[in-house]
Amino acid sequence: MTYHPKSDFIAVMMERGFLADCTDYQGLDDALIAGVVPGYIGFDATAKSLHVGSLIQIMTLRWLQKTGGKPITLMGGGTTKVGDPSFRADERPLLTPEAIDENISGIQQVFAKYLDYGDGPGGALMINNAEWLDDLNYLDFLRDIGRHFSVNRMLSFESVKSRLDREQSLSFLEFNYMILQAYDFLELNRRYGCLVQFGGSDQWGNIVNGIDLTRRVLDHEIYGMTTPLLTTSDGKKMGKSADGAVWLNADMRSPYEFWQFWRNTTDADVGRFLKLYTELPVAECERLGVLEGSEVNAAKIILANEVTTLCHGADAAAAAEATAREVFEKGGVGDDLPTLTLDPGDLPVSVVQLIVRSGLAKSGKEAKRLIAENGARLDDAPLTDAGLMLDSSALASPVKLSAGKKRHALVQLDG
Fold first, then answer.
1. What backbone phi and psi angles, to 5 degrees, belong to 19?
2. Of 286, 285, 289, whose CA–CA distance to 266 is shortest?
3. Domain at 8-227, CATH class
4. I need a surface site. Which of 52, 107, 123, 356 has the fewest CB within 10 A?
5. What predicted TM-score, i.e. pTM, was given to this entire model?
6. Which CATH superfamily is domain 339-413 in?
7. How many angstroms separate the CA atoms of 178 and 205, rounded?
8. Residue 91: in which H helix or E strand, if any?
9. What is the pLDDT of residue 91?
């Protein structure tokens, strides 16, 4: 659809590639022009950090704030106790309240880097849906809220249908999740004047549920906007790398490894990622996105620096680039490389075990295959013996392990 927005926010969303769909372009646009629009995204507290797959949502809220709106980060302290069944093959493991609180604390550290939680009209809010979900009276909830939901319609949602089509059981606990998410939107509108919910395009049904419920119960007009579900140009899910999730918290994924993830972006994704994950002008993103050959590497370094600066600060980005240059261009050992520190009592240790423990392979089998295919190096020399054992003399000084040309780790002895 061709829509010509009047508001800065929708204009940014459209030209930078954030917009998949909107329930009412004109209505939301008018609201954005009329005053400060509070908008929210819900994040379940299933881990101590968010990963790169959530970054498109975080950047949506950042742009909302930069264009005069009010971001609300809704922590799912209540809904995490149920578990979102969307597009999962199985039920999520249930967490204790203590684990949920610990995860929320870790996730808050991520948002503090991207949003301003000040007291002004556009200051971001961090809200926990346990505020209204923990003390719900089940009978009242069934009578006042449950009656507005059609089971026939809920069964037609893609997230539910995909589970049922595969004949995998969907528990009543999980089936309730979409009702709770709709109720979140209602309560955020009632308590905080929230007018719009954002989410990935897989959340469309849940968002529409909340809009319908709020219209029926409060007679308020609210809106939904979705972002595309991102995959890299080679079809991989955004946020995952060969060695697991690319977390946004420095204690779960070092700034250097984070920088490297972006530096290793496929050529075809550079322009698109610059628009989504940095704040460089669109024209500059497009210029960098069409570079080829060795020039595209310079564009990837700009991408890595810009994204890392937003997430970890300018100093971390500069340190990562300096380390990368030292490791790749000079063949040296950078101080900022991921480091595995061994206890002398662990020696001797097999090189296969070191490759796994340093995160360069997920299993011993994968490490052995890496060696067999000449993809592993020890201090830049090809590693050919999968049975090699390293003792204290071999580790008298730190050694560098490499998997392929771009992934490295240091191994050193404690003390």
1. -95, 120
2. 289
3. alpha beta
4. 123
5. 0.79
6. RNA-binding S4 domain (3.10.290.10)
7. 9
8. none
9. 53
